[in-house]
Amino acid sequence: MAALRGSIRRSVWKRLLGFAVVAAVAVPASVVAGFHLASAATLQIHVSGNQLVDGAGSPVTLHGADLSGTEFACDQGGGPTDRGWSIYGGQPLDQLSTYQAMAAWNINVVRVPLNEDCWLNINGVNPAYAGAAYQQAIETEVSLINQAGMVAILDLHWTSPGAYAAVAQQPLPDADHSVAFWQSVATTFQPNPAVIYDLFNEPFLYGNYFTNPNQDAWQCWLDGCSLNQFISAGQIGPDGSTTGYTTTYTWNTAGVQTLIDTIRAAGASQPILVNGLDWANDDSGWLANAPVDPDGQLIAGAHDYPGESCATTSCWDSQQAPISAIYPFLVGEIGDSTSAPVTFLPTFLPYATSHGWSYLAWTWNPWGYTDDVLVTDWSGTPNAGEGAYYQQYLLSLPSSPLTGESPPPAAAAAPTATPTPTATPTPTATPTPKPKPTATPKPTATPKPTATPKPTATPKPVAAPKPTATPTPSPALGTSPAVSGTLLYTDSFASDAAGSVPAGWAVQGANAGLTVTASGSSYGHVYTHDGWTATTSAGNSTWANYTLSVKVQPSAWASEEDCVAVRYVDGNDHYAFCFVGGSWVGFGKIVNGTVTVLDQVPLAYTSTWHALSIVADGSTFTVTLDGASIMTVTDGTFSHGAIGFDVNAPVSFADVTVNAS
């Protein structure tokens, strides 16, 4: 499926609500949920055979949560010389109580996502959020995690080649900066035996990204290769112009073997987690292309979400279980619905436990979203779905506090309070709250070595707010100008049964998740997408000049997009208007699967209902949103075609009408 993107997981983007900035506080000495605080000197984690063990050599299963914010707030918004708006994203990540609440769930590992620009102080990040300030903030967070008796996973999450900002998930780490990133991170944390290095969040590769079309994806993953584009996500580029979703740019990736060698050369001996391809959901080539670690401390990894191509016991049996017979296996992200009943965790968790896997759930951020969120507040109140189920499951497991060479004393001495960094200044403009999960949607066709098409989960995910952009209030719905001419098509989905694909619509995309839903809104039944990347179309391919009007409730996740297609010939040939990341909209054409952005405008929008109208008249296209004309585009590539929706995040559509114009 092609839209104004290179196709991206909706898990891929993790974002946060617009929390107020929390002031730095001194770290108190206390006891965590019935067991003693531990320092990094007490905590240890190592690889022994296909198991993780603690400092006493006892087998350990890690079960924890991801904690988002530090991967995006420091580099998001602003321009080439003043990027970012916070380090912690206004969240209490410098307070011990945050990690005490996690430990109370029987959590023993926390994953911390990092941004290479911010750590290295490059590509125009505001110094208040980069370099020494960012590094000290991460060291503080890791120290607090360790003090609460938990291991920290340091994850290279967001990267970008050249002078572009790291504001999105890239296919692979870049040779420009990722090697320097891991050299610095490994040097910094080399003395801490309670740390695991997660080489790269969610590798993915598409055939049209390769400079060499004959490149093998797994060889590229292992040894690096040359790519011809990257995810630029509508940023203000180094030349001051706003990019499209992707940017054509030749760059070299850094293979996982190079990064492992870099960490070991820095003197760091901690375990290294290595995820596979297809947004970390394809491990089919992991064993055949296994990297080499002279210290024998490799952990094989994956991200498993409902609806992904490897989200069944049969796939786990064939792909992941064989790896876990040789290496420790850690699933760095799992997720489910925030409302009961949950559907994925009841299958995954017992399977993972029976196979000795470690796992972490996305995410311990109280975002108000429908998937992949564990808590409703920072004190650890679980939501009714994923949160409640995961908490109960963890509490049913034997407690597994990690130890050093000997068990901790009966009464641990209070550690010296770790100073916290100066409070991050509140951005000038209060950002619009936009949640982000990681149930990451996947691309329609992720080229593996066997070129097996995949759905896009991302993923994510959580549209992080832009600090400098004040959202423009939308006019009331229903203010779009009335269209005239013969009615060619209309569908309110009222006659379609809930859970069905509506009559007259064709859906493409595995696990597409496009069905009619009995909505609580005034629109009655709506056509909703809550699966992975998909395209759906309706109407007549002979239509030429017409006006498409539709109500849309987009997701507003950062760097994710939902598109409405006109003059739709097929999934690889049509025009599309796209909502992107809660911060801009664009109109483009897709020809033989190649995207060309014809126009785009910054627009802060929210995940509420919007009235959209697209007039196709000859070679002119006029777009009206919520009663305001926002762009006019001229292009003569397609003279006729039906209508459609290109989606890769939760979105709903209602009241579709097509009138001749």
What report would you give on this structure?
The chain has 661 residues and is of the alpha+beta class. The protein is 15% helix and 27% strand. The chain is built from ten helices and 30 strands. It has helices spanning 96-103, 116-120, 131-147, 178-189, 217-223, 256-265, 277-280, 313-324, 345-354, 386-396, and strands at residues 46-48, 51-53, 59-60, 63-66, 109-115, 151-158, 195-198, 226-231, 246-252, 272-275, 298-304, 329-334, 358-361, 438-442, 456-460, 487-491, 506-508, 514-518, 525-529, 534-538, 546-553, 561-570, 573-580, 584-591, 594-602, 610-617, 620-625, 628-634, 642-647, 651-660. Strand 23 and strand 24 (584-591) form a beta hairpin. Helix 4 (178-189) runs parallel beside helix 6.
Brief rundown of the structure:
The protein is of the alpha+beta class and 661 residues long. It has 10 helices and 30 strands. β18 and β19 form a beta hairpin.
SSE layout:
Layout: E1 46-48, E2 51-53, E3 59-60, E4 63-66, H1 96-103, E5 109-115, H2 116-120, H3 131-147, E6 151-158, H4 178-189, E7 195-198, H5 217-223, E8 226-231, E9 246-252, H6 256-265, E10 272-275, H7 277-280, E11 298-304, H8 313-324, E12 329-334, H9 345-354, E13 358-361, H10 386-396, E14 438-442, E15 456-460, E16 487-491, E17 506-508, E18 514-518, E19 525-529, E20 534-538, E21 546-553, E22 561-570, E23 573-580, E24 584-591, E25 594-602, E26 610-617, E27 620-625, E28 628-634, E29 642-647, E30 651-660
Parallel strand pairs: 4-5, 4-13, 5-6, 6-7, 7-10, 10-11, 11-12, 12-13
Antiparallel strand pairs: 1-2, 2-3, 8-9, 14-15, 16-30, 17-20, 18-19, 19-30, 20-29, 21-26, 21-30, 22-23, 22-29, 23-24, 24-25, 26-27, 27-28
